[in-house]
Amino acid sequence: MSEPDRQHIREFIVENFLFGDSDYRLEDGVSLIETDLVDSTGILELVSFLEERFEIAVADADIVPANLDSIDRIAAFVARKRGEGQRLAG
Q1: Which of 5, 33, 48, 90 has its CA 20 to 30 A from that of 67?
Q2: pLDDT digits 0-9 by tens, 18-40
Q3: Closest CA to 76 of 48, 54, 43
Q4: How far apart are alpha carbons 70 and 72 in whole angstroms?
Q5: List of residues 6+ apart from 27 with CB closer than 8 A
Q6: Is the dihedral of CA 59, 60, 62, 65 positive or negative?
Q7: Residues 70, 30: contact at Cβ < 8 Å?
Q8: How many CB atoms lie within 10 A of CB 29?
Q9: Rounded to whole angstroms, how far apart are CA atoms 33 and 89?
């Protein structure tokens, strides 16, 4: 995933879950759920954003912490959904 795409994810999280607090140091690997930054409603907002911004379909089975619990995991999930891992391997 490109750095600008990763930045779009970060900006969405800061704007919607940190209410624009850009002073909060949000590390890419920090759990959004364990730190209470995102709740179940927030996950649904995040999924909607990902589907619209990255033009991917997120199935109910995809809505798990392994895919959506940190910026790193979200970026990897989006890359997989877009087939970026396959292009790099092939």
Answers
A1: 90
A2: 998 888 889 999 999 999 999 99
A3: 54
A4: 5
A5: 71
A6: positive
A7: yes
A8: 9
A9: 31
